[in-house]
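Quick bug: DNA-binding response regulator output formatted oddly.
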Amino acid sequence: MRILVVEDDVQLAEVLAEALTDRQYAVDVVQDGEVAWDWFNSLHYDLIVLDLTLPKLDGVSFCQRLRNRNFTAPVMMLTARDTIADKIIGLDAGADDYMVKPFDLQELMARIRALLRRGSSATVTGFVWGSLRLDSSTYEVTYKTELIQLTPKEYALLELLVANGRRVLSRAGIIERIWTLQDPPTEETVKSHIKSLRQKLKAAGAPDDFIETVHGLGYRLKKTEAG
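Here's what came back:
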């Protein structure tokens, strides 16, 4: 999943980016609202972490623009302003949650996980597709009872596939969702990760075509017995 962090406090932005990256999210960081708006219009984001006070375009105006464009993914608003009136303004602008600085980083990560679960195919603790289970709290993957060891990027790719199910994902779309702008790979890298995932899934007992190739389009998961 891809997250945009809009925060003009460079040190805090680095802390947030590191914490989110450690949890297997692709993270882009910008320091002002206008640049963030350009990035929003160029990439798909599953969640936006947004400071209230920003140069060029403040967080409230930015959030209002998002909702006016029918952006339905969650927005977590961060601010040093702690009055009830400020919280109401942020929530009325379209924020889904609101945390006051300084905040506990672990609580923020928990709230972000909760926001990302809303409207997704996630279970309480992860993702399920047939006999495959991904635990988003421990990043453990099992097929039936077999534990599968994945690299961080393999886990992110498999989670993306499970979250989208039968929807076809192109290689370019996969790159956009799980790699940052600072480290974009080639499409051959995506093919290599898909090959490795298939090998590991097969070793755990999954069918050869658990990840299907839709020629000329991309990849999707095989139908489950339930459809």
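Actually, after a second look the formatting is fine. Confidence is low (pLDDT under 50) at residues 121-125. Closing.
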